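Subject: CCHC-type domain-containing protein

B.,
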Amino acid sequence: MVGGSFPRTGATRINASEKVFPLLKEILGTSGKEDSVPRFLVLKKKEGDFANTSPFLISKTLYGLIGNVKEVKKVKGELLIETVSSKQSKQLIKCERFGGCEIEVVPHGTLNMSKGVVYCRDLLNCSINEIKENLKSQSVVDVRRIKTRRNGELIDTANHILTFNVTKLPRVIQAAFYPLQVRPYIPNPLRCFNCQRFGHSSVNCKYDKRCVCGKPTHEGSWCEEPIVCPNCQRQHKATAKTCAVFRQEMKIQEVKIVHRLSYFDAKKKVDTMVTPSTSFAQAATAPQIPIQAVQAVGPEIKSIDVK
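Prediction pasted inline below.
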């Protein structure tokens, strides 16, 4: 079989994925014209904001315009609205006034898109632009190859990250004569390279600089014993995939992608899954979801996403 892709795209693999990752079933679906209409809209005033506006007034005004919506959130003085249908979205986008105020309604920058991964060796014979051009009719707007590091060099793998301009991932796409299964793309947790903690970048870090071994920064790349993870306090580096906190952060990433939440909202949701008698580390190491399998697509498990 050319490229060796067909064995990886059968229906049995899809069913197995849904069984192992029940949360991911919520974003698996079929793309179409209905899905191409943005469901996540940002409503903002042309003058002022909604920070101090009564939630009851917002709710009543919104209901009068388009009826009941799925969800409304105040975000930095603006309203993030998730509609229940494309018809509602179209109605809201046309609105120019809201409770006597001039407004602007625009699609959210990222929530109306979704990312998935496909595996096909034969696509390595195509340029990124060629893949993108031939898949744009299936709502693909961006393509990136996942790379793996071997002997100090970055090498292309047969895994490709596809960005769709729809909220629901298609189960399968047709790449020439290859039917390719689309798996949800769950990125690695954001870890600060300054303090080694999760949830923020070094640009916004307010903590002291630390090495991955848990000690203050030191000369050379060799870390002396004892090595203590700055996150879980166990004997491994902050980069270890076996770290209980890393596994918990991967769960947060999954919930964030599935439920389309901010990092902090996803963390709150995951924290509610931990009972008072269960420690943070115990919950993270519980055999519920094999995190590595969420990341693994095709044989190249130890791969990294490089733009």
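The chain is about 25% helix and 25% strand.

T.
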